[in-house]
Amino acid sequence: MSTNTPEERELLRLYKCVVDTGTDVLTAFAKYKLLPTYNGNFKQYLNDKKHELFHLWKSRKLLCCECPPVGCNHKRTGHMPTWIFQKLYDDTGPEERTHIVRNNRTIVQVCLHKYVSRNIAIHELDFSTILFLLRNLGVLSQNETASLDLITTTRSQICQAYSMNSFTMAFLNTTWTKLENALVDLVDPPFKRIIRNDIKQLREADLKKERITELMKNVEEVKLIVSIFKDNALNILLK
């Protein structure tokens, strides 16, 4: 993208809003939804949710040493890509060989102790990882789900715009309004005015050349992540 037209520059401002403001809002929202009983300790949360997250990553047919004798009892609401699981856990833990069960030569049960929670804070996670945790482990209202859907759709549309014609200014203005309302819906009342002011300043900002280059690089990275998610979803449907 050349960023020569007002529409192209506005598109980058929108993307910056989703990446910067959107990630900040999503992180605060995730702390509120996922960590209230863990005193904000994300590592403790990962330790507690490891069994559930493992089965979101691996098939329910593959058991682990924490599964009851009747089999996995966790509802598989989605599929976690390997790269997300590896951001949260490493595989350097003390594996107990007696926890590994084989049927002929096929492993049917693994040792969950092999996977150790990484020392990472929730604010260090990327947009896609936080979104996955919220959608699969968070208890969300219908309005909260709708807001997350709109933010995700906007982010995807902006990235796809770099391989098609730019949107009209009328469409971009409408998208700004919808995105702002969705972000504001996810923050506590005392911070709603702050978020609106931040978005207003961002819409009036003059993006520097270096920042444009950085944003465009980020867009390409997001496009790759989106394509991975689509491929994983297609593979699940074909199984």
Describe this structure in words.
The chain has one domain (6-231). The protein contains eight helices and five strands. The protein is elongated. The strands form two sheets. It has a three-stranded mixed sheet with strand order 1-4-3, with no helix packed on it. Strands 2-5 form a two-stranded antiparallel ribbon. It has 239 residues and is mostly helical. Helix content is 60%, strand content 6%.
Summarize the model shown:
With 239 residues, this protein is mainly alpha-helical. It is 60% helix and 6% strand.
- The helix/strand order is HHEHEEEEHHHHH
How many runs of DSSP E, i.e. beta strands? 5
Q: How many domains comprise the coordinates?
A: 1
Shape: elongated
Protein name: DZIP3-like HEPN domain-containing protein
Keywords:
disordered C terminus; three-stranded mixed beta sheet; 8 helices; 239 residues; mainly alpha; two-stranded antiparallel sheet; 5 strands; elongated; 6% strand
